[in-house]
Design a protein that fits this description.
seven-stranded mixed β-sheet, binds zinc ion, globular, Rossmann fold, 43% helix, 7 strands
Length: 262
């Protein structure tokens, strides 16, 4: 048995980044995989505009958990395989409390492989994503979980592993995303980029037109040079992090500012 945990900051991140690989591992591969999903938050503030304020919080959390369960049922992953880590959407910290919470969870699960959001060379500078990626790295690097799972990052600018899929497989992603009805405002925008992005990744994988991309993180000191990004990745990474739309103020930054003033 091989245990694989897919970690996501918000419900819908896995569908947009790992849908094909998850589907293959959970339904098509003949190996004995146990697939679990951990969600740092329930995305309970993931609605734009003040007109939705009354739904945000506990109510939206319930709806989004159901949406996640529906999406995972397409992969035949049962609801009891989902763990919610209990953080507030938009306020995921990186601190000792979070490290010990993740370490306890992973210690209990003893996974062989973990997938999580890229923490360093990321194309998405949402602090919930960066901090979730960081905590996974920290727990493994500092041997906090009693095992050494293989760590892969999705949403990476520095991929070294690709999972290929065919044109006709796009309907799987449509089906998965259709489960996240509350997120259509965002998903419709992201979906436009999904095909070209997958096509670009597919150029790196012989025999496949489309692909999902991942970065395997190497912890062994012998393989450290495999973690080094190319100059192109460094430039893109810098470019992404300096773009004005990525410099949005996250709630924790605002809180920090407010605390300084008071
Ligand atoms: Zn997210």
């Amino acid at each position: 048995m091989v245990k694989i945990i897919f970690v996501q900051p918000h419900p819908d991140d896995l569908e947009l980044n790992c849908g094909h690989l998850m589907h293959y591992l959970s339904t098509k591969s003949n190996k004995n995989y146990v697939i679990k999903v951990a969600s740092t938050t329930l995305g309970e503030y993931g609605l734009p505009g003040a007109q939705y304020d009354k739904f945000k919080g506990d109510f939206l959390a319930k709806v989004r958990l159901r949406e996640l369960q529906n999406a995972l049922s397409i992969h035949k992953i049962p609801a009891e395989n989902i763990t919610y880590l209990g953080y507030i959407d938009g306020l995921v910290p990186f601190n000792r409390e979070m490290i010990s919470k993740f370490a306890n969870y992973l210690k209990k699960e003893q996974p062989d492989i973990i997938f999580g959001p890229e923490a360093i060379y990321t194309s998405y500078y949402h602090m919930d994503h960066v901090n979730t990626g960081k905590v996974l790295f920290y727990c493994i690097y500092h041997n906090l979980i009693g095992c050494r799972p293989i760590l892969y990052y999705y949403q990476t600018l520095s991929p070294n592993f690709y999972f290929g899929f065919k044109e006709e497989d796009f309907h799987l992603i449509d089906q998965l995303l259709a489960c996240h009805k509350t997120q259509f405002w965002l998903i419709n925008r992201v979906k436009m980029m999904y095909k070209p992005k997958s096509r670009l990744a597919g150029f790196n994988l012989a025999g496949w037109k489309y692909a999902e991309k991942y970065r395997r993180v190497y912890f062994n000191s012998k393989n450290q040079n495999k973690n080094k990004p190319s100059l192109r990745v460094k430039i893109r990474s810098h470019w992404y992090s300096s773009m004005p739309w990525f410099q949005a103020k996250y709630p924790q930054d605002i809180l920090k500012e407010l605390n300084k003033k008071s």
